[in-house]
């Protein structure tokens, strides 16, 4: 037992060490600088601070409600309906979730040139419908239908059976998805930056403004603390809901095969079709705004960009590759450790696992600008001064990817029958061989899917990259932001053309991922 604990401790060194060095240390340094200025208390007592917090929570809550309402009909179709084109539906739903935030912002600006609160809420909901559809649909597809059919046999209508039987059993998945969506919406950066302009700001964009433009570290630190409190609350709710969801999955009966909808269920299918049409509308608007002149402009240098758009695209591909490799190494190791800790008989080990699981999600909720600025403050103390390293941007992007990797791989590893591992160990296989012979084959599809998701997320990451990328070495999202900040029709056309490039790459990768059909996972 002691040898097993030592092995787990060694395995945990890499993910925990990475989180400490590249997340906790930079964030603590920025917060410490802010407290050192002595202005945190003063910022926290301003009415404007809490107005910002109120707007951040309000738009995130509205976006979450809209995402749930739009996602439930899609979840029903994905889980219960046997109709032609379901694979295409899954891809259409998934594409918005992995689109870069600057692409989503520009797509909605094509529909609402003046932006505003409604545009922000709709854009965030568009971005997160897939989280609800896939998380709730994953549980819905495993629910035993016999209880629902018994209610119908006793005279309940379709709506009554859903409300009294199905919906209570779906509640853990709905709460889990809602917590994740709220987390994403409350820390949304590119969407709010593009659609909010100078009129509407959230905590995330205000932290960026105070750090980059005003160098107000105490103000940025105070706002980061307020944001962190909201994030921790969302993580706690999500963790509780996740445990309830996993319990429901363990206790389920074998699911019945999907079938064609009957009676009033066609209304749900019709609602899903309407949602799909609305999801396609911003994408179509983005395509219509692009032009041949814009693509031709990307091949030139000078003007608003120090390099050509194609050079920026290649740099995005290389950076995303580095970030994905790093995130997969850390995320897979973290998942293995978390599974082992959860199987441990001791309360202390299980508690350590839950703490580590929550800590791995924190980078999703802390301002990317805070992390990026923290890198510039702290990483010069490490050998080689990583502030000048080309790996600085991949490190920041990997922080965003690691939680996604863990959330996709961890449920799969937890679902592996423990008797298979025990049988292999009884036959003399060591832990490494058990992983190679048992866990890896069963989790292979999810591993590839997680890598694909991580790649497209890194490809479009904007928050930290906009702060850390060198002026002469922009990634494509940073180049898009530079183009839309400059006047001129050609700059606008080039920005939309670059968005179309990112969208096409994203759609291609998502299509491949969806064909893999990973069995479990939250995304």
UniProtKB/TrEMBL annotation:
Any single GO CC term annotated in Swiss-Prot or TrEMBL for this entry: plasma membrane
Single Gene Ontology BP annotation: transmembrane transport
Cell compartments where the protein resides: Cell inner membrane; Cell membrane
Domain of life: Bacteria
InterPro entries named among the record's database cross-references: MetI-like, MetI-like_sf
The entry's keywords: Cell inner membrane, Cell membrane, Membrane, Transmembrane, Transmembrane helix, Transport
Segments passing through the bilayer: 53-79, 91-111, 117-136, 173-197, 217-241, 266-288, 323-341, 361-379, 391-413, 446-469, 494-513
Membrane-related topology note: Multi-pass membrane protein
Domain (ABC transmembrane type-1) ranges: 53-238, 313-513
Family, as annotated: Belongs to the binding-protein-dependent transport system permease family.
Listed name of the protein: Iron ABC transporter permease
């Amino acid at each position: 037992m002691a040898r097993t604990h030592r092995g787990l401790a060694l395995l945990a060194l890499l993910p925990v060490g990475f989180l400490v060095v590249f997340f906790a240390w930079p964030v603590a340094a920025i917060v410490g600088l802010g407290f050192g200025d002595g202005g945190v208390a003063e910022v926290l007592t301003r009415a404007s601070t809490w107005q910002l917090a109120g707007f951040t929570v309000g738009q995130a809550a509205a976006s979450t409600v809209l995402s749930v309402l739009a996602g439930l009909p899609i979840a029903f179709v994905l889980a219960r309906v046997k109709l032609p084109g379901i694979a295409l539906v899954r891809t259409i739903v998934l594409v918005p979730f992995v689109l870069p935030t600057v692409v989503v912002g520009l797509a909605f600006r094509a529909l609402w040139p003046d932006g505003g609160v409604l545009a922000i809420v709709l854009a965030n909901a568009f971005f997160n419908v897939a989280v609800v559809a896939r998380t709730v649909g994953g549980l819905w597809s495993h629910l035993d239908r016999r209880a629902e059919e018994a209610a119908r046999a006793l005279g309940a209508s379709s709506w009554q059976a859903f409300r009294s039987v199905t919906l209570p059993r779906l509640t853990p998945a709905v709460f889990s998805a809602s917590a994740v969506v709220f987390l994403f919406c409350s820390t949304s950066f590119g969407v709010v930056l593009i659609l909010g302009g100078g009129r509407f700001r959230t905590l995330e964009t205000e932290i960026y403004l105070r750090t980059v433009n005003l160098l107000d570290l105490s103000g940025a630190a105070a706002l980061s603390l307020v944001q962190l409190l909201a994030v921790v609350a969302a993580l706690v709710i999500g963790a509780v809901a996740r445990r309830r969801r996993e319990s429901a999955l363990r206790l389920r009966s074998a699911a019945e095969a999907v079938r064609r909808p009957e009676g009033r269920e066609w209304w749900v299918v019709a609602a899903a079709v309407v949602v799909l049409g609305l999801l396609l509308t911003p994408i179509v608007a983005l395509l219509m705004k692009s032009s041949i002149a814009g693509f031709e402009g990307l091949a030139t240098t000078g003007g608003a960009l120090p390099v050509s758009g194609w050079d920026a695209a290649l740099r995005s591909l290389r950076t995303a590759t580095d970030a994905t490799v790093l995130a997969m190494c850390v995320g897979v190791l973290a998942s293995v450790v978390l599974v082992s800790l959860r199987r441990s008989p001791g309360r202390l080990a299980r508690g350590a696992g839950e703490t580590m699981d929550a800590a791995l999600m924190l980078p999703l909720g802390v301002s990317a600008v805070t992390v990026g600025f923290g890198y510039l403050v702290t990483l010069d103390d490490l050998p080689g001064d990583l502030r000048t390293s080309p790996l600085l941007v991949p490190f920041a992007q990997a922080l965003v990817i690691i939680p996604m990797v863990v959330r996709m791989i961890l449920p799969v590893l937890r679902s592996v029958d423990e008797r298979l591992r025990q049988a292999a160990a009884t036959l003399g296989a060591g832990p490494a061989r058990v992983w190679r012979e048992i866990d890896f084959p069963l989790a292979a599809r999810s591993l590839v899917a997680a890598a694909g998701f991580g790649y497209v997320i890194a490809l479009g990451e904007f928050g930290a990259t906009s702060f850390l990328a060198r002026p002469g070495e922009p990634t494509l999202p940073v180049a898009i932001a530079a183009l839309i900040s400059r006047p001129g029709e050609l700059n606008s056309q080039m920005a939309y053309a670059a968005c179309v490039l990112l969208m096409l790459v994203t759609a291609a990768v998502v299509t491949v991922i969806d064909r893999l059909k990973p069995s479990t996972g939250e995304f």
